[in-house]
User: Fold these one by one.
Assistant:
Number 1:
Amino acid sequence: MIKLGLLGVGHLGKIHLKCLLAIEQIELTGIFDSNTKVAQSVAQTYNVRLFNSYEELLDCSEAVDIVTPTSTHFKLAKQAIRQGKHVFIEKPLTDTVETALALIDLQKKYPVKIQVGHVERFNPAFQAIQDIRLHPLFIEAHRLAIFNPRGTDVSVVLDLMIHDLDLVLNMVQSPLQSLSASGVAVVSKQLDIANVRLEFQNGCVANLTASRISMKQMRKIRLFQKDAYLSLDLLEKKTEVVQLWNEDDPNKPSVSMTLDTEEGKKYIGIQAPKVKEINAIQMELSTFANSILNDTIPVVTIEEGYNCLALAHQIIEEIERRSKGFAV
Ligand code: NAD
């Protein structure tokens, strides 16, 4: 069992709290939130211990779950790591590339486990393609949300697109060659809609669009590779794989369409891999606990959190550079 304290019980923190209470590898020591009124009410509702300070929470815990605003992540994580406490930290890792690097340096001195909350890795639709060999050459991602003032303190790239950046970096596994991006701050002072085209050294191109000013919600990723097309609906938790099979392949699905090619008969099979019912947040938190208990590498490492954040900032800088050139 890992003794873990929860920091921040706002919108997402309350969801984490429910999940933490259901994980058998975790013993929740208690909660702390700088908003005393909110903290008291949550502690009462869930019958959990309320700490009077972060220091008190740290003293009683082996690990912390940081679910506070991004601007506070660095300070809070630094304090925990320096005391040798394992850290689960919500995405984005920090608000600046420099502070993210400083945390990586700190982890070298204090070898604790750190996992970043890129929860889409645990989305059932993404989990359903884990057994398929991926070598995408073209990726198209759309993440659209209806406007909500919560989260508008950061650009849509850090708020929404970062989820797809993490998935793309995880699937492509090749250095970035170039990017071009554009975006607009339509409603808030930060970018509300953004698009990026990423070109990787292995030839893969990823085209990502994120918007928080849409009329409907959508979270879709489509992957195209030499022998297959994969469609992931991360919102509806559905996955579809359209794959090319050889005539003599014993695994070819029964429902398939015949295709005459120069290499002989091929079969196009459409399959819907089984999507398990997973509570993604509960799963990410229990894998974090397991990484501590079994001394294994966390599923989403601090380096991956850093790479994703650095790419997000590169995209924002490119959009700023571009918009200066076309100032109206
Ligand atoms: P929120 O504003 O609803 O809640 C944040 C809570 O932290 C508040 O209750 C606030 O009082 C508390 N807080 C602020 N500073 C504190 C401090 N120094 N010590 C203790 N408590 C403090 O925010 P939220 O929507 O829950 O977001 C929290 C974090 O989770 C952000 O980093 C956000 O980017 C991330 N997030 C991730 C996802 C995801 O899909 N993984 C979704 C939403 C939010």
Number 2:
Amino acid sequence: MPIKKHDRAKISEGDIVLGLMQQQSLLISHLIEFAHRHHGDGEVVSRRVEGDIHRYTWSDVSHRAKQVANALDDSHVAFGARVATLAWNGYRHLELYFGVSGSGRVLHTINPRLHPEQIAWITNHAEDQVLCFDMTFLPIIEAIHSKCKSIIQWVAMCDADKLPSGTNIPNLVSYEAWIGKKSASYQWPNFDENTASSMCYSSGTTGNPKAALYSHRSTLLHAYAAALPDVMGISARDAILPVVPMFHVNAWGIPYSAALTGAKLVFPGAGMDGKSIYELIESERVTYAAGVPTVWQMLLTHMKAAGLKFSTLNRTVIGGSACPPAMIQTFREDYGVEVLHAWGMTEMSPLGTLCTLKNKHLKLSESDQMKIRLKQGRAIFGVDMKIVDDAGIDLPHDGKSFGDLWVKGPWVVADYFKSEGGPPLLKDSDGVSWFPTGDVATIDNDGYMQITDRSKDVIKSGGEWISSIDIENIAVAHPSILMAACIGVQHPKWDERPIVVVVKKPETQLTREELLAFYAGKTAKWQIPDDVVFVDSIPIGATGKMLKTKLREQLKDYVLPNL
Ligand code: AMP
């Protein structure tokens, strides 16, 4: 066949030469089949809501996921119907991950920390048909079940003899009775890889919650990418503790990447306090853990107070909000644990960037390497990103210019479920569609992205921008500070000025003046906060992030000094 001169505008169907490789949809059922066949005796360990430790294997997960699929068939739940969970990280939740999606239904993980009214709204919006809940959340279900119009089957994730009596929840069955007698043989169906597999409503601070609807294809591509050495670096030799909840963006995709690699999984259940997490890490010889900074703060505080060290943990992925430099340093220097700073969003399945060094960085001094480690990292293959100005014009990747961060890729949303809130994508000057993340960032010439702020949190003082993250990071580096949130307050001359709201560590003394003096030399003078507000606690949202909207509300009567 003569090779034709390439003219992109004129590619016609007759010119296309197809490759001769097998066509096979990328499906979530393939992950669990693979884990069963090649890592069948690999362990999955869970601390149960009941408090004891449950231990079984990837083969057991596979068998019971098939029983879930048979139970859904017998309950007449249609292909594509939504099956919701309100559950901690545990083995039954894992079985639902594979049994629901693998059989062609859509797994809808609900965040139990949301207000019950919001949970009811979400189940109606998603039109969930089944809702499986951990017994911890029985009071929520009792309060809202009559408002959840679409649910035909309620499943309490407990043993048959633990089903609560005296409740008026209709069609309530225990998980073990629901799946227990079902066959463990099931032929996973084959279908288009673009079929919806799971969904997650974003915590959105304005308007109704909006759901990202993931597909089998997006989930598998994300699972491959997440496991790569320069991304989460997950292998069959790891024992992974996802502290990040399975109700928040599929625990960052770890359950899927663990099945893909055959890693051991360790689930913490409801025990998120420092002591419980530490004990699990040690007893299960965890090598790798993932979570948000607020959870790690509890772990580090517990370990310091009790003089403890890790015997096996060597890496931790930290994301969800900016990881303070002091935390990266403590993990590295005091405990020998490498921190992988990660950035992502519900709308991105969630991974966008991971911070790992390049070969050329290895010869840099420890302090120069640290400057890189503090960034949110470089794009993972599959995620394209850029920064733009207010007019949508590209800004240079020079590490200094900052602008709105836009992303695109096969695991980034194209639209929200039911197009809630209108189309999310924006077109650039070349007509290419991008997802505007709502984050403000810089990108340096090595491709490392650093979040300056959420666009709504950035403080605009006299036409210049102040990063609230920078101000918080300095505060938490002070030995007496446990948590810090920086917010902008109206100012007649400068529009806004930053103040820092802090929680002190117990039994420490610190004055406003001492903390302000601590900023000297660490940031430009005009960026130093105008005031320090000491509080007992800072409101934390459903996904472990500081709730600045609530904090602003709490401080609505606050007036800057010297005004
Ligand atoms: P969510 O969809 O609830 O996971 O929230 C996503 C948002 O969390 C992002 O758009 C960022 O604003 C923030 N975020 C996630 N990871 C980081 C990080 N490593 N540093 C700073 N902000 C982060």
